[in-house]
UniProtKB/TrEMBL annotation, chain A:
Residues 405-476 form the Transglutaminase-like domain. Coiled coil: none annotated. This is DUF3488 domain-containing transglutaminase family protein. SMART domains: TGc. The keyword Membrane applies. InterPro entries: Bact_TGase-like, Papain-like_cys_pep_sf, TgpA-like_C, TgpA_N, Transglutaminase-like. Keywords: Membrane, Transmembrane, Transmembrane helix. PANTHER family: PROTEIN-GLUTAMINE GAMMA-GLUTAMYLTRANSFERASE. The chain crosses the membrane at residues 37-54, 66-83, 113-130, 136-152, 172-190, 550-572. It holds the Pfam family DUF4129. It comes from Steroidobacter gossypii.
From TrEMBL, chain B:
Residues 241-301 form the ChlI/MoxR AAA lid domain. This is MoxR family ATPase. It comes from Steroidobacter gossypii. InterPro entries: ATPase_AAA-3, CbbQ/NirQ/NorQ/GpvN, ChlI/MoxR_AAA_lid, P-loop_NTPase. CDD domains: AAA (cd00009). Residues 48-178 form the ATPase AAA-3 domain.
Length: 657, 318
């Protein structure tokens, strides 16, 4: 910074000195949005801020109103063109940020600065709509702190140092903390979608509605977290940890697809141990819950299970972290009757595709004799022949299964699942592909499982007459380590698995787990604090199933009460200091004389007042003269006698009001 | 000095002496009891007085009568636009016999100085007087000469709208403890004035009612007049009001707030009050704060007297 510039900054007006702070506050508030809003909005806001600062330093006039209006209108149109709407999180946030920049351009008073600071608060907290990650929290707190300190400094007539403002703000934050906690705990959580975060337009990684060879292996490269699961009691062993997602029925020779048509509901009877657990699902594209196969218990108001046993949340999209309390049983029996249509549907194969596979399957079925034997022989074929489990399967041609089974023989779980299902269908066994996740990483710090996109998996389900739907996982045959110990163990050491080295470093792994545990605690206890948790908390106070309306009214009353008590205390604490007994008696006197028709004027001294009263009421003149002299002696004279006070009280009491 | 008056005064005496003095002054200046009392309060509080009024209402007569009644040495300086500081302070003259410079003291070395029409002189001459007033001493050619004690300056000023004046800036106005106006006498008193003796002759006949020693003693008594907490609350409320009110460009200075208290104490003393009461403060309020508060715009009261009355009405007595 040149000397001249420094000198110039010294000469800035009070507004000019505050402007950089306000601008910095705005910049810090906008920063968390940098990744998800269009870059041009950020640029416009930044340019506006820079122009405004230059104007201040150079002491130029602000741009004329019509220019400012034109730019603001242009920005509005820009946002509209960019998003086709002004509604929704992304458009709203972009508009907010652009307009905050525009506001800087017309900032010429303390009031404008205040508006900019409030816009900054808004922009800052809007970041929570995108990401409730704990990482953001310290940043948010520090920025909010800075904004509040700036707001305080803006409104001080005397110059206030940053340190002083920061100290006072910190104190205010701490004072407000108990109230904030109480509001957080007891503010009624409204049911319904009104308060929910609207769905997001941006694609999120995760399973999709269809599966083409290569999809799952590609997804497996992502270490993003899909969901976390905390079991009540012992968790199921790894081989039972199948997290059921979309069930795919339609096959075109290469790609498997979900079907939208509902299937008739089927009964499921648990035949073994059941597990109760809470699953916290990270934001995703759909409303899929990934319960442990097979889900037997769930909240009917929040989720429903389809006829092909997929569990859906009753909302458009799981746009924010959402938790479900579920119950599952890994050993179960489904209904033993399969509808004719469904049997037909789940044995359908596209004509003239994968003909070699179909021929092979029919031949194997014939030689096996039974469905069970056929399935076993197929699995044996996968295990014993030269099939390899790899994260980098080669691309397949249109007849993907033929290509895989007879040429490449390198595949990931979706190749095996697809091939197996096609063979089963070719043999006349109803079969379908189930996608989801398998396994999960146990976090000992928080006693829960982390399931990542890298745990994505695909397997098959076949219908065996008399036994119902059965899960067959061909991957377990070819790479049993995948099921027992996870992807890292199943993939050959020579192959590159993203993050494997990281996971195998004990210290780093521990650190990662600790971090995730902290995140999970934050998610479960704070972000996910909703109706259920609040109900549980209220139940502790013997308030069962309160209606949110009552809770809201109670909250408002409690707040009013709190502030009434607080104001009463402050009024008492800072009450006028005239509580000395002489003043008190004098006030009594004034009240009495006011009743006699001679109210005291505020600026009237005691001598003048009493003289006026005596004039108005001559019959009291003698009494008043003594009252006056005693009072003036007590209140204004040197060394008053204590006895005079009782004399004054007596005299004032004697007065006939 | 006259030896006919008592040289010792007891606690009870000041009141009588002052009563006698005011009575005598009131015989000369008819119908201006309040202003006379303010003038004496100002003197007792060791302040200086600014009388602002049109010519011929008795400013000079009041000053002269006061000097005579208090037995003070008296000098009148007529301020004109060509007045030089030396005309006020004095001048060093070369003495041929001793071959040294001899300082000839100027009119400022009197106990009561009447600076007549102070706003007619240039700021340079004005400030020579005002500096002497503030410091109670004069430094000429490196030598410091103390001024007389008691030292009391009465400056008169024509209202500033008259042509050819140099109005005193606020910083200079602040040096005057009080500013008062005399105003026209009411008709009956004016009639007496017209019928009565010439005022100048009357002043010449006045005998001192108070000696300078007694005056000095009474000046030391002023700060000892009791001031209660309740009264300080009131004074501070006034001060705070002038500083917080948007009507005035700035509030009164700490020097002025001390002055207000001293003037009120002096007023309480000459009225025989045991302690200062709010009415004492109110009596001197317009005189002390009126000329110190500059109205910010048209919504504020304009003249110093109006300002004083306004502040008085706005601040409640605790």
């Amino acid at each position: 910074m040149s000397v001249a510039l420094t000198a110039r900054l010294e000469q800035l007006t009070p507004l000019g000195k505050r402007l950089p702070w306000v601008t910095a506050g705005l910049a810090l508030s906008v920063l968390p949005h940098a990744t998800h809003i269009p870059i041009w909005t950020l640029l416009i806001a930044a340019i506006a801020a820079a122009i405004r600062l230059v104007i201040e330093v150079k002491r130029w006039p602000l741009p004329p109103k019509w220019i400012r209006s034109a730019i603001a209108f242009g920005a509005l149109i820009g946002v509209l063109l960019n998003f086709r709407t002004l509604n929704g999180i992304d458009a709203g946030t972009s508009l907010l940020i652009v307009m905050a920049g525009m506001k800087l351009l017309e900032t010429h008073s303390i009031r404008d600065l205040t508006v900019v600071v409030f816009l900054s608060y808004f922009a800052l907290f809007a970041a929570f709509l995108y990401n409730q990650n704990i990482v953001l929290l310290p940043y948010m707190i520090v920025t909010a702190w800075l904004l509040t300190a700036t707001l305080m400094r803006i409104h001080q007539t005397e110059a206030m140092s940053v340190r002083e403002a920061a100290g006072t703000t910190a104190k205010m934050f701490l004072q407000a903390l108990p109230l904030a906690v109480l509001l957080f705990l007891f503010f009624p959580r409204l049911p319904g979608q009104f308060w929910a975060v609207p769905p997001r337009e941006k694609a999120l990684s995760g399973l999709s509605e269809e599966m083409t060879p290569g999809d799952v292996s590609e997804l497996s490269l992502s270490s993003a977290i899909a969901f976390r699961v905390k079991f009540e009691g012992d968790p199921p062993p790894a081989r039972e940890r199948y997290w059921r997602g979309p069930v795919l029925h339609q096959f075109d020779g290469r790609t498997w697809r979900r079907v939208g048509t509902p299937f008739s509901q089927q009964e499921i009877v648990s035949s073994g141990a059941t597990y109760r657990y809470r699953i916290s699902i990270e934001p995703q594209e759909y409303n899929w819950v990934f319960p442990l196969d097979m889900v037997t218990g769930w909240n009917r108001d929040r989720a429903f299970r389809t006829g092909d046993f997929q569990l859906f949340a009753r909302q458009q999209q799981i746009a924010v972290l959402t938790s479900f309390d579920l119950e599952s049983s890994p050993t179960y029996v489904t209904a033993t009757e399969l509808h004719r249509d469904l049997r037909h549907f789940d044995t359908a194969l596209p004509a003239n595709r994968n003909v070699r596979t179909v021929a092979l399957a029919r031949q194997m079925r014939a030689s096996a004799g039974s469905d069970e034997a056929f399935i076993q022989s197929v699995l044996t074929k996968f295990a014993s022949e030269e099939f390899y489990y790899t994260l980098q399967p080669p691309a397949l041609d249109l007849n993907a299964v033929d290509d895989f089974l007879f040429n490449t023989k390198l595949g990931f779980c979706e190749h095996f699942a697809s091939a197996f299902t096609v063979m089963a269908r070719a043999a006349g066994i109803p079969a379908r592909v189930v996608t989801g996740y398998q396994g999960g990483e146990y976090n000992p710090m928080g006693d829960y499982f982390i399931v990542r996109q890298s745990d994505a998996h695909a397997w098959s389900e076949v219908w065996l007459d008399g036994r119902g739907w059965q899960r067959i996982d061909p991957t377990a045959a070819i790479a049993p380590q995948r099921i027992e110990r996870g992807l890292d163990a199943a993939i050959a050491a020579s192959e590159d698995v993203p993050g494997r080295a990281l996971r195998q470093n004990a210290a780093l792994s521990k650190l990662r787990m600790a971090w995730d545990a902290a995140n999970t605690f934050w998610n479960d206890q704070v972000v996910q604090f909703g109706t259920a948790q609040q109900g549980w908390l209220l139940a502790k106070f013997n308030i069962d199933h309160p209606r949110w309306e009552y809770l809201g009214v109670a909250m408002i009353l409690a707040l009013l009460g709190f502030f009434a008590v607080l104001s009463a205390y402050l009024a008492w604490r800072f009450r006028p200091r005239s509580r000395d007994p002489v003043a008190h008696v004098y006030e009594q006197l004034c009240r009495k004389l006011a009743k006699l028709g001679v109210p005291r004027l505020p600026h009237e001294g005691p001598n003048d007042y009493v003289a006026r009263a005596a004039e108005a009421r001559p019959e009291l003149a003698a009494q008043l003269a003594e009252v006056r002299s005693v009072y003036v002696g007590l209140r204004y004279g040197p060394a008053p006698l204590p006895t005079q006070l009782s004399r004054l009280k007596f005299l004032v009491n004697q007065l006939q009001a | 000095m006259n030896s006919a008056i008592p040289t010792l005064i007891t606690q009870a005496d000041p009141l009588e002496l002052i009563t006698a003095t005011t009575a005598q002054l009131n015989r000369v200046i008819l119908g201006k009891e309040h202003q006379v009392r303010l003038c004496i309060s100002c003197l007792l509080a060791r302040g200086h007085l600014l009388i602002e009024d049109i010519p011929g209402v008795g400013k000079t007569t009041l000053a002269h009568a006061l000097a005579e009644s208090l037995g003070l040495s008296y000098q009148r300086i007529q301020f004109t636009s060509d007045l030089l500081p030396a005309d006020i302070i004095g001048v060093s003259v070369f003495d041929r016999e001793t071959s040294t410079f001899q300082f000839h003291k100027g009119p400022v070395f009197s106990q009561l100085v009447l600076a007549d029409e102070v706003n007619r002189a240039t700021p340079k001459a004005q400030s020579a007087l005002l500096e002497a007033m503030e410091e109670h001493q004069v430094t000429v050619d490196g030598a410091t000469y103390p001024l007389a004690a008691p030292f009391f300056v009465i400056a008169t000023q024509n209202p500033v709208y008259q042509i050819g004046t140099y109005p005193l800036p606020e910083s200079q106005l602040d040096r005057f403890l009080m500013r008062i106006e005399l105003g026209y006498p009411d008709p009956t008193l004016e009639r007496q004035l017209l019928l009565g003796q010439d005022r100048r002759d009357l002043v010449a006949t006045l005998a001192p009612t108070l000696s300078p020693q007694q005056l000095l003693l009474m000046q030391t008594m002023v700060p000892k007049v009791h001031v209660s907490d309740a009264l300080l609350d009131y004074v501070q409320a006034i001060v705070r009001y002038t500083r917080e009110s948007p009507l005035f460009e700035s509030g009164i200075s700490p020097r002025a707030s001390i002055g207000l208290l001293r003037a009120a104490q002096a007023w309480a003393l000459i009225h025989g009050h045991q302690g200062v009461v709010p009415e004492d403060v109110q009596a001197v309020l317009a005189g002390v704060v009126g000329h110190r508060l500059k109205p910010r715009d048209d919504s504020a009261p304009k003249t110093p007297t109006e300002v004083g009355q306004f502040v008085l009405k706005e601040v409640p007595v605790p």
